[in-house]
Every structure is written in C-alpha cells, then in structure tokens.
Amino acid sequence: MRLLRQSIWWIWLLAVLWPPAAGAQEYSWLAYGDFRGQFEPCGCDPRTDLGGVQRLAGFALRERALNPEVLFFDLGNNIAPPKANSNSNADAATQGIKDRFLLEALIRINPAVVLPGRYELLRSRWMGDAWTRLKAAANAGGPLPYVLSNLKEGLGPQWLKESAKPFIKIKGVAVFGFTWDPALASFLLPATSPAGIRRLKILGGNPELAGLYKILLFNGPDPQLKALIKLSLFDEVISSNRASDTAKPDQPDRANEGRSIVRLTIPRGAMVLQSQLGGQGVLRGGAARRSEAKSLEAIFSKGSSQTSPLPSFPPPALALAPLKNVSWLERDSLNPEVWSAFFFAYESALKDSFDVRAKIRLADLVNTPFAGSQACKGCHAKAYDVWAASKHSNAFKDLIDKGKQHDAECVGCHVLGGSEKGGFVSQEASPQFMNVQCENCHGPRKEHATNPTAKPRWKPAGNDFAKICTGCHHPPHSPEFDFKAYWGKIIHGHMKD
Ligand code: HEC
Ligand code: HEC
Ligand code: HEC
Ligand code: HEC
Questions:
Q1: For ligand 2, is residue 373 a contact (CB within 6 Å)?
Q2: Which has the least CB within 10 A, 95, 164, 261, 334?
Q3: Any ligand 2 atom below 6 A from CB of 466
C-alpha cells in the first residue's frame, strides 16, 4: 500500500513538474523486430499467417507515405538463434539464405536506430561475414545505425566496433540501446554491475542530451530490465520480445494480444513497452501513442473495470495494462510491387540451393525404401480412397500454388521423406513422393508392398498415434490440431470400429 501511494505521488509530481520534453509531441515511432530467422510466415493456417519482411516493407512504404518523419526502431534478434532451431525442418543452407536476405531487407527498411540483439551478438562471426559481404556488394546502404550503450570500450567484434554508437540523437529524441546475455560478458557491461551503472549514468546524464526525450531499446532478461528502470534515466523503455528462444516467431499470440504488450509506469513518468511481436507486427509509439495515454482522472477513477491496476514500484512483475497499439503484419500489408527484384532474388537463391540439394539426393532414389501410395492401392483400396480424398494427397500442390515448392523448409512437411534417404528429391525427379502419403505415417513400406508378411505389425512408439501427427501438426503450422477431430477426418483401418 505504501508503495502504491508512493507511485501515485510520483505520477502526480511528474505530471506537475515534468511536462513532456520539448519536441516529444513531434515524433512518432514504429518498432519491430524478433524475426528469429523467419523471412516469411508459412501460411499453413490463416490464423498464423502474420509477419515477414515482405509485409514489413509494404507497411513501411505506406507509413512513410502518410508521415515521412516517422522513426523506425529495429529491436534486433532478427536472424535465427545461435543453435539450430529445433522446430524447423529447414536445413542449414536454407536457413543461411533466409538469414542473409532478412538482414539485407532490414537494412533496406532504413531504420533510424537498430539494436543489435542477443542473436546478432551471439552470432557475431556470421554477422561480421554478412556485414563484409553486404558492404562489398554495395547493398548495405551505408553503415547501419546500431546503438549499444553497454559495449565495453574498444572491445567487441569489428563490425560492431565500426558501427555501434552509445546513443543516437534524432530530432528531440535520444535513443539508447542495451542488450545483455551472460555469454557476452567479455564485451558487454551488465546493468547490475557498478561499471555498468557508472557507464549508463554518464551517458544518461550527458549535458548534450539535457531536455531530450530519452528512449531505451532493450533486449535481455528481467533482472537487467529492472536494474535499468531503477536508474530512472529513461523516459521510455521499449523491450523486445522475451519469449523463449525456442518459440518460433510465427506462433502468434493474438488471443493474448492485450497481454502481449505491457505498459508500466516508471519514475520518470514514462513507461516500459514490452512487445511479444515476434516479427509479426509493429508497435506504435511516440506522439500518436502519447495522445492516447489515459488522463490522471481516468487512472484514479474507481469502478471502471477497464482501468488497469496501478503499478507499484519497483514492479513485482512485468505484466500490466494492455495497450492496443499494434499493427499486425497481415496479408493486406503485402505489396508485391515493393522491391520485387529483391524478393525475386531471394526466391532464386532458395531454388539454386534446393537444386544443389536435389542433385546430392538423387542417387539415393535408386535404393529407396519407399513405395509411394500408388503401390498400396491394389491391396488397401479403402485406406487408399480415404487418403486420396484427404488434404494430405494435395499437400504439394498447395505449395506449388504458393510458389514455395523450392523452399526446403516448407517442402519437408508437404512430401514423403523430405529429409530421409531415398525420399522426395524434387517435383521432376520424384513426382511419386510429392504430398503427404501413407508412408509418412506408416513408415517405409517398399518391402511390405511386395511381401506383405515380411514385417511385424506396425505400431507407433508407445502406441501413441497422435505423436505421428504432431511432427507436422504443431502450433505454428496447425494451431487447431486435435487428434480426435483430425483423425476423424481421415479415419481408416481397425480404429474405425
Ligand atoms: C512442420 C511442418 C510444416 C512446415 C515446415 C510447413 N507446413 Fe504448411 N502445413 C503443415 C500442416 C500440418 C498443414 C495443415 C494445417 C491444418 O489444417 O491444421 C499445412 C498447411 C499448409 C497449406 C494449406 C493451407 C490451407 O489453407 O489449406 C499451405 C498453403 C502451406 N501449408 C504452405 C506452407 C509453406 C509455404 C511453408 C513454408 C514457408 C510450409 N507450409 C511449411 C505443415 C507444415
Ligand atoms: C496421417 C497418417 C496416416 C496416413 C497418411 C495413412 N495412414 Fe493408415 N493408419 C494411420 C493410423 C493412425 C492408423 C490406425 C492404426 C491402428 O488402427 O492400429 C492407420 C491404419 C491403417 C491400416 C490398418 C491397420 C490395422 O491394423 O488395422 C492400414 C492397412 C493402413 N492404415 C493403410 C494405409 C494406407 C494404404 C495409406 C495410404 C493410402 C494410409 N494408411 C495412410 C495413419 C495414417
Ligand atoms: C500385395 C498386397 C499389399 C500391398 C501392395 C500392400 N499391403 Fe499392406 N498389408 C497387406 C496384407 C495382406 C496385410 C496384413 C493384413 C492384416 O494383418 O490384417 C497388410 C497390412 C498392412 C498394415 C497393417 C499391419 C502393419 O504391417 O502394420 C499396414 C499399415 C499396411 N499394410 C500398409 C501398407 C502400405 C502403406 C502399403 C503401400 C506402401 C501397403 N500396405 C501395401 C497387403 C498389402
Ligand atoms: C508429414 C507431415 C504430416 C503428418 C505426419 C501428418 N500430417 Fe496431416 N497434414 C499435413 C499437411 C501438410 C496438411 C495440409 C495439406 C494441404 O492442405 O496442403 C495436412 C492436413 C491434414 C488434415 C486436413 C485438415 C483440414 O483442414 O481439413 C487432417 C485432418 C490431417 N492432416 C490429419 C492428420 C492426422 C490425424 C495425422 C496423424 C495421424 C497427420 N495428419 C499427420 C502434414 C502432415
């Protein structure tokens, strides 16, 4: 209670003594980030069909046409996490292409400020190579405006030393950046150490920045954020998505839309905005948001169920009032005209890589353990008819319709044996293995098809039939999956009775 009263007092004091800094009304910003290596959404389910840089490009064009002054903040964590994404079927080559083009696309968006996130810093060597290549190809469009306020003097990888500034001043705003991970301690200062605190206080107290509105872009764990808030140096903190590293960015949290953005009043009278956008949307802020801010009367008025509880300080948990100021990157933000040559180059690079992979896999077709559904038709006519009428038998055509039949990431779940020896190679070399087939679920059956008694009765491990499905039917790609309901649509064999 004492804390609550204290924070009310603070808000009152700030409202009286701390009118918005000059210039603060004149800017508005848009923040995005956390693509996690996801160049585009899969579109497997309309509900998860969000995000991707192509839509971001269309969105940015539209917003700049409306307001050429708008500032774009890139919150980082845009390339894939350092360890191979366990949820993804993409092979390393496909992911490499996606990361490279993602980086280039984000440079083309031309943000005012970029925070190098944990992923960029943990994959510093890769970033250095990409940086050099982009510069050599003159695609980089000048140095990226990286901001990192806690970089140790003279340390860190070359690309970062060359590009990162401790703060960036634009109009009436000073933008700072803070990223932390214990694995990066050799060149970053934590906000929980005396050296880190000293550094931030010197930066924040810089007389050159007096009167400016101070924004901090943040990527790191909670204790760091709390330590930063305690310093009371910033008017606004924009924290990037902190969902676990294994969460895929195309796993939208739309049911939790309100909860995914927290607004937290901090002593300087401003707030923390925490986004779980994960490459799916754009957070709006600045002047536009400020005019939407609740009045003090509204905050203090009782009885309104809409009014969120006042935060105590220090915050017990970082989950508070919802802010509905996200623009989701939906299909309607896609503008096929924007950078068409760039996106064409992306598709060609994927196809080249796919062709290389197909060439290597071609030899395995000779001794394939797979038979293909046609081979089962004669003896299992009923099962065959069920399959032929199901969407599984059409899974590859759906990829072709989207022009994604050369994207190894997509192909993996839409064919037979996409990553197994002797499985699908390409539309031309192995048309009999296109689509999801009997053997995706029943295992390779070539031997059985000629000698049905050769193998013991098929059972999935632990009799867990649902597990056969969830290798492909998992949240980003099949958010509504329910074994009973889905099996009901393709039921065959003795489980029918
Ligand atoms: C992890 C496996 C997996 C990956 C990877 C995958 N898909 Fe899918 N896809 C599915 C599943 C499962 C469904 C069926 C979803 C459902 O109906 O619940 C599906 C459905 C679809 C559909 C049909 C949508 C409709 O409206 O009927 C399309 C199109 C599609 N995927 C395209 C893609 C593209 C493009 C990619 C690559 C960017 C991709 N998929 C990657 C598993 C996958
Ligand atoms: C999406 C996965 C899936 C696909 C595709 C699929 N099946 Fe099945 N199949 C199952 C499951 C699950 C069962 C139930 C197992 C049971 O009843 O023991 C089953 C049962 C069967 C059975 C009966 C087994 C028994 O002991 O009664 C046969 C035969 C069979 N499938 C053949 C086929 C053939 C042939 C195709 C292709 C034309 C096919 N299945 C496609 C998953 C699949
Ligand atoms: C020449 C006929 C023949 C062909 C071709 C054939 N099967 Fe069978 N299959 C059988 C017979 C016979 C059984 C045993 C029936 C039983 O036990 O009820 C059987 C049993 C099965 C079973 C259930 C028992 C087990 O082994 O798990 C599955 C699943 C199955 N077949 C899948 C397939 C698939 C998939 C194909 C195509 C790749 C295929 N079969 C091709 C004749 C055939
Ligand atoms: C190899 C990956 C894979 C596996 C394994 C798999 N599916 Fe699918 N499934 C797909 C894809 C891809 C689609 C979408 C095909 C399309 O529409 O393009 C799909 C679509 C479906 C659909 C149609 C959904 C609709 O909207 O009508 C059902 C039902 C389904 N699967 C059931 C199952 C069940 C049950 C299992 C497990 C016994 C299973 N699937 C296993 C990939 C898979």
A1: yes
A2: 334
A3: no
Q: Answer whether 452 contacts ligand 3 (Cβ < 6 A).
A: yes
Superfamily, domain 2-333:
Metallo-dependent phosphatases (3.60.21.10)
Ligand with minimal distance to 404 CA = 1
The pLDDT assigned to 310 comes to: 39
> Residues 6 or more apart from 325 whose CB is under 8 A from it?
261, 283, 284, 285, 288, 289, 292
Same fold flag, 2-333 and 363-458: no
CATH for 363-458 is 1.10.1130.10
pLDDT in tens, 128-187: 999 888 887 765 555 689 999 999 999 999 999 988 999 999 878 899 999 999 999 999
Could you give the residue ranges of the DSSP H alpha helices within 221-285?
A: 222-230
Angle in degrees, CA 134, 138, 141, rounded to 5: 85
DSSP, res 433: G
Q: What is the pLDDT of residues 369-380, one digit of tens each?
A: 999 999 999 999
Per domain, the residue ranges of the chain are 2-333, 363-458
What pairing do the DSSP bridges indicate for beta strands 326-328 and 167-170? unpaired
